[in-house]
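Data availability (excerpt). The following record was deposited with the supplementary files.
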Amino acid sequence: MTGNGAGMAVAGRGLRRDAVGLREVLFQSITDMAPGAAIAASIPAGVAFAGGALPLAVLFALVASLFTAWAISQLAKEIPAAGSLAAYAARGLHPAAGFLVAWAYVMVGWLVAPLVLLQLGFTTAATLNAESGWPASLWWPWSILGMLIVFAVGYFGIRASARMGTILGVFEIAVFAVMAVLLVVHAGGHNTLSVFTTKYTPAGQYHGLPGVIAGSVFTTLAFLGFESAAPLAEEARNPRRTVQLAVLLSTVLIGALYVFTTYAIDVAFGPAGFSKFTTGTTSASWEGVARALYGLFWVLVFFAIINSTLANSNAGVNVASRTSFAMGRIRAFPPLLARVSERHRSPVAAVAAGSVISLAVMLGLGFGYDPGTAFGMIGTALVILLVGIYLVVNLACIGYFARRAHGFSLVSHLLVPVIGVAAFIPAWLAGAGIKAPGLSFIAPLTPPYSYMGPAAAIWMILGTIYLGYLYLRQPQRVADVGLIHLDTEPAAEPATAGQP
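Predicted structure:
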């Protein structure tokens, strides 16, 4: 490492080593996938195309996601780093690619909290409005309360954050799993494996396999976040094994939950009419079905969705703060972001900065439009950025292992990431609203959702300009992006508190 490590240190101690184990790291990825919110909201987005064959579409999405999860897990085993995906891209492709991945991934973390806390706000307000007359326009107190809770947990460090994620994650999974079992029992003789065929796809343009493929593209979005165990590498016990397992297990386990719960609601609702199923609180929704069949069980479903939003925003804060910390530590980002609490060993400056930005995005878009529209806008930007990162990291897997004298596997390090790229390109195009030959199900985005593509592009252009500035003034800071992992970090306490 050039510069003997001095340029990589900033004032303050490092993150707390060996603080969390496999369970907590696993739930970091699980809660970032937000299974409760995904089951109730994200997955039904594919029903317009797949109809009653939605379980098959979810199964396709699970298989597609596993290719990228495998590629990321291979890199996680080699490069245990808080900088995670940025370090992978830097080592596998080029330090400049790593810098831009970090630039995008920090924004992803900043956007996760406002996305799901908007959902917390409008879901809580709508439910209380129906039950007690609470004004539906007063969504924002609930969103702000959620942001304050998440900030407080982030401040108290990874142990508190991981425990919260584990508890909330277990609750939301348990509620939807129990309800799915009840739905399968309710369906009785209507249980059928034909929902795993193309029999119940809607008539017309998307009947048959095209409908299943189109549905799988949209249900793939429910898997986003499986990689987020990676930024906890420096706080995990046995990080090479722990992070690798967490990335793979979260994808498989939550994918299986998605398939089972989608099957259960499909056969209980009726696959022939399942194309009418929606998100929200209507009778043709998870909450609506719970109300109709199980009375007060809907309350548990409601709390599972709320829990999911809090757990997901907590996971997003962890992603952004750890990535910011790693980049601040090498001064590729402002060194202030590497400040760590002496007591809790949490990156307090990064947590605080991210919370302020997330709050501004949430309230700015929520009041500028409405919370539902703001939710869709932020979700669009998230897909554009995060799926783009997945594409780059798949390529980084190929580049990293191809450069090694031994250990290269034709299947794991070439074929799997190539398929991962091929699987996520349609999802990226669909999220961005970019039509392409053979993908007729993609519709161009309308305003204000169409603003998110240019907004994401502007963010990345700003990052590219800043990258150019660093190359001119401090090129070593860019080169160090590929060195931000456990094996090369200086062990000594940092010096020069105010060094820029």
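Summary of structural features: The CA atoms of residues 71 and 397 lie 6 Å apart.
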